[in-house]
Structure prediction request, 348 residues.
Amino acid sequence: MRVVIVRLSHLGDIVQTLPLAHALRATVPGLELAWAVEPPFAELVAPIARVFLFERRGGLRAWPRLARPLRDFRPDLALDAQGNLKSAVATRASGAPRRVGFAPVDWREPFHRLALTEAAPPAPGPHLVERVWNLARYVAGAGPLAAHARGAPLDPLLSQDERARGRALLSERAPIGSGRLWLLHPGRTGDPRTWPTERFHRLAVRLLAAGQRVLVLSGPAEADAGRRLARELPPRPGLAHWPEQRGLRDLAAVFAAARTEGAKLVAGDSGPAHLAASVGLPVRLLAGPTDPRRTGPWPVTETGATAHRVVLAPPPPLDGTGWAPRPIEGLDADAVANSLLREDGGEL
Prediction:
């Protein structure tokens, strides 16, 4: 049986779609699995499924470049795990005789219905992982998946060589010291989910003063924030910077190595936060405009029942004109530091 998953982007959403691939691999005999995805995320899914690239920056030419090899693959089933116009076109272009997606209540755009032959029933909860798992149960059957009570894992299938490389990279980059290692990941400039850079600065200072270790980690999308923090917080005992880190599988391997050292990640609602969760690194999510019940690292609660925690921004006050700042700006750096140190029994 040939199956193609259509989840073109973004990093966090692709990570949270991994349970669908793992569920199919575990339950469908003779499965040939493929994934339609944008190039920046292809390396993440390549060990799990055959990759068909949607080169979004190629304009209209991107569509035939995706459709031809997809049709040559001759899928029996296409699963739209995205639910918007772009994924609907890709799902229809696959030529699969059976095309299944989320329940209509979970569609982002109404055009989605034109691409599907059927839809899964509504998911039991609002989180993307719950919708993905519900889709898996619909096409694979609840019986075969019964052993996976909480769903299949968010596992990027790191090899032993990749894990060894992650340990080496972390050893090379992490600051020396005896305190807990905190990975701070500032967000992309202009993203409403991004905590202000100056507050990451203050958080790092507070953690260092409490005897903790801090590694400020940023990728190409967060290069501006990473470079700014490196300038304003020069390396010192307990503090190191890794600006413009590249390679998703390297990043996952570094997160896996950090987990074994008892580290934790502080980040906004971003792809790296979800990638960290996929390898079990505890995440402290700085949540502002997005609802962690829908998009937080899985599994996540506000009550401390899982390895991940949410630090939720209070609703921002309106000014006299009815304008409000970004919700994430309501999170005070000292309050976040106190929360992190309190859970570790540290000094406030």
About this structure: The chain has a mean pLDDT of 90. The radius of gyration is 21 Å. The longest helix spans residues 160-173.
